[in-house]
Specification:
- The complex is a heterodimer of chains A (about 400) and B (about 240).
- Chain A is mostly helical.
- In chain A, strand 4 and strand 5 form a beta hairpin.
- Chain A contains 15 helices and six strands.
- Chain B is globular, with a radius of gyration of 18 Å.
- In chain B, about 50% of the residues are buried.
- The longest helix of chain B has 16 residues.
- In chain B, strand 4 and strand 5 form a beta hairpin.
- Chain B has a single domain, classed as Rossmann fold (3-Layer(aba) Sandwich), CATH 3.40.50.300.
- By secondary structure, chain B is of the alpha/beta class.
- The chains are: A mainly alpha (about 400), B alpha/beta (about 240).
- The interface between A and B is large, with 40 and 44 residues.
- The structure holds adenosine-5'-triphosphate (ATP) and magnesium ion.
């Protein structure tokens, strides 16, 4: 067990989260079967929900590269998500006809997935190249601006994007004809005429994509580049002094993070068959950031758990909260509370207005109980337990350009 | 002039560099050399420009005038991460460790720029031999080490780069006298094993004792230069830096 083989060569050290990964994979693989067994008819609804949840998990895994690994605060991550989604809208629909190009493109979904990664990564580079020289807070502001600008451009460049209406009737992803299997006909029949429509098919695709992405990101993390990210996050000057090309290292993080977001955007657009500028606002960026921080910055398994929890709270628990409240007051015999009177709108509406207060409270409580995140990375845990003396020396490296 | 070509060119030649922080000039035509096998000390009071000199040689800043030649190569405007590859590594002022990495990983980051990774195990062992304390703390987060241990780690990390020139910025700062002794002993040891050292020190007596040559820096100018012994004996130096 030599130092070198541990550090640069053999890849991951024994991951303390192996169990978490196994549980996640088993649960993910068995979920469709159990849903079918226990819920029957509504199983497909839940499969759709879980596939949508997968989009956010993908986004969180990507943002974790930027924020967790490289320590760059990106507040406009949804911009790349939008870019990925619109890439699919342009390349796989009749929409091209109404643009000045007068030409519709129908590029296969699988190819657009790769193209969108590339396009989003390129925008990541374009945004990153001039701004990554800035330090923490400034970078946050610039990315915040970028996140505001991109959906606005899609909204206002209506000649190209149909503005606020968005682009609809996107192509249905299809399996290449040469991939035949039991899924194409009976007994599963989740792919008809090679078109992917069934929720189960989307669930399976997302599950496979997620596994591939996790493997990729884990390898990145333990690679030379992963070490460089960690070094830059810890101390940029020291990293440069050890031979790390800090600007390139940060650019890679930005571009790779953006690529994930673009990837997720294409999947999202294809599944929904619709893109609209409203879907990529600031709240999306913040939600993803919350998933990363709450799950345990820097730890992939933690981020997956964090995004599952946050997604469930925001998109499943909170929307149903008014109904829960209504049926609760009815079951305890206080039906009077469900009626509106004067300023009081009835229990359902009343609770519905408090939704985000509840969400905020949940976040505060979780962060107070587990400041290191639900499943923190090893370093962060030690750091919070033992307390790290941060170096107080401040050297203004921006002065060196003079 | 032809007769002088017999002496080998110094490993590092800093030729009259001017360095600015914004509009403030920190170095005014600083000239110094380091030859192979040497320990060269750079002394001077607070704010004299010692750290700036090291930062400029490392490529963390660039001079507006003058030039820096290392190992026959002009590195005046070379970027920091490339200069490390050419063989200059420094233990910077304030240690600048990676606080949330363990001791061993900090050492390994020192090898980042190395092309030849075949003897890394032996090099780690050598650092642990120089600083047995680090071995005991191998798995501890660098940020939780004591100040002295952090200083050892900063030196060890720089050594892991296998530099052709090692630069140390105030390695004895804030250490107990016994540790100061250790650090200087290790400097000599490293030097005897073949690595030239450019040493910045507040502890001028100690530095001049072990240095082959030394430069005195005052408000960005080199005001004096000679062998360690000469400067130790110089009345100006004694008055200003040795407290005599
Ligand atoms: N980032 C900076 N911006 C502006 N001025 C700076 C900066 N860093 C250093 N200086 C100035 O440059 C001069 C030289 O500083 P330097 O750090 O090189 O001194 P030093 O000799 O290392 O001192 P010390 O012994 O206190 O470490 C000082 O006057 C200092 O105030
Ligand atoms: Mg200094």
């Amino acid at each position: 067990m030599s130092a070198i083989s541990q550090f640069w060569r053999t890849g991951p050290r024994r991951d303390p989260n192996t169990i978490a990964y196994i549980v996640l994979i088993v649960v993910g693989a068995l979920a469709p079967i159990f849903l079918q067994l226990f819920l029957g008819g509504t199983a497909t609804f839940w499969l759709t929900v879980f596939a949508d949840m997968g989009v956010y998990i993908l986004l969180a895994i990507g943002l974790n590269v930027v924020v967790g690994f490289a320590g760059l605060l990106d507040l406009g991550y949804a911009a790349f998500f939008a870019i990925g989604a619109y890439t699919y809208a342009f390349l796989a629909s009749e929409h091209g006809i109404v643009t000045p190009l007068h030409e519709a493109f129908h590029v296969p979904f699988w190819i657009v997935l790769l193209v969108a990664m590339f396009v989003a990564a390129s925008f990541g580079l374009i945004l990153g190249a001039p701004t990554l020289r800035l330090r923490g807070d400034y970078l946050a502001i610039v990315t915040l601006g970028f996140g505001e600008i991109v959906p606005r451009v899609f909204k206002n460049a209506s000649v190209w994007t149909s503005g606020a209406n968005g682009v609809s009737a996107l192509d249905i992803p299809a399996l290449p004809v040469w991939i035949q299997g039991p899924w194409s006909g009976d007994p599963f029949a989740i792919v008809q005429d090679f078109k992917i429509l069934a929720p189960l098919a989307y669930y399976v695709i997302m599950f496979v994509l997620l596994i591939l992405c996790v493997i990729l990101v884990r390898n990145l993390h333990s690679s030379r580049l992963g070490r460089a990210w960690m070094a830059v996050r810890e101390d940029e000057v020291a990293a440069a002094a050890m031979g790390v090309n800090t600007v390139a290292t940060k650019l890679y993080a930005f571009a790779i993070g953006a690529a994930f977001s673009g990837f997720a955007g294409t999947y999202y657009a294809a599944k929904l068959s619709l893109v609209s500028p409203e879907n990529f606002g600031f709240s999306v960026s913040i939600t993803i950031l919350v998933m990363v921080v709450l799950g345990g910055m820097g730890n992939i398994a933690g981020v997956i758990i964090g995004s599952t929890v946050i997604y469930s709270v925001i998109f499943i628990f909170l929307p149903q909260l008014p109904d829960y409240a209504t049926s609760f007051v009815q079951s305890v015999g206080l039906s009077g509370l469900t009626q509106s009177s004067g300023d009081y709108p009835g229990i359902g509406e009343f609770i519905s207005r408090l939704k985000f207060l509840v969400f905020g409270l949940i976040l505060v409580v979780v962060m107070l109980l587990r400041p290191q995140g639900l499943l923190p990375s090893r370093q962060r845990e030690q750091e919070l337990q033992k307390g790290v003396h941060e170096d107080t020396t401040i050297v203004d490296v921006t002065a060196e350009t003079a | 002039m032809t007769a002088t070509t017999t002496a080998p060119a110094p490993l590092l030649e800093v030729g009259g560099i001017d360095v600015f922080y914004g509009r403030v000039q920190a170095l005014r035509g600083v000239t110094l050399t380091v030859s192979s096998g040497e320990i060269v000390a750079l002394i001077g009071s607070n704010g004299a420009g010692k750290t700036t000199t090291l930062r400029t040689i490392s490529g963390l800043m660039h001079p507006t005038g003058g030039r820096i030649v290392f190992d026959g190569r002009d590195i005046t405007n070379t970027k920091a991460h490339e200069i490390v590859r050419f063989g200059i590594c420094q233990s910077p002022e304030g240690r600048r460790l990676f606080p949330r990495m363990i001791v061993l990983d900090n050492l390994m980051m020192g090898t980042y720029a190395r092309r030849d990774l075949s003897h890394v195990d032996r090099d780690v062992a050598r650092v642990y031999e120089l600083f047995p304390r680090l071995k005991e703390r191998e798995k501890q987060l660098a940020g939780t080490l004591s100040g002295g241990e952090q200083q050892m780690l900063a030196i060890g990390r720089a050594l892991m780069a296998h530099p052709k020139l090692l630069m140390l910025d105030e390695p004895s700062l804030g250490l107990a006298p016994i540790l100061v002794e250790t650090i200087f002993r290790v400097c000599v040891e490293i030097n005897q094993q073949g690595t030239p050292i450019l040493l910045v020190e507040q502890n001028a007596t100690k530095a001049l004792e072990i240095a082959h040559r030394a430069y005195v820096l005052e408000t960005g100018n080199v005001v004096q230069h000679g062998t360690g012994k000469e400067l130790l004996a110089s009345p100006d130096v004694q008055r200003a830096y040795l407290g005599m």
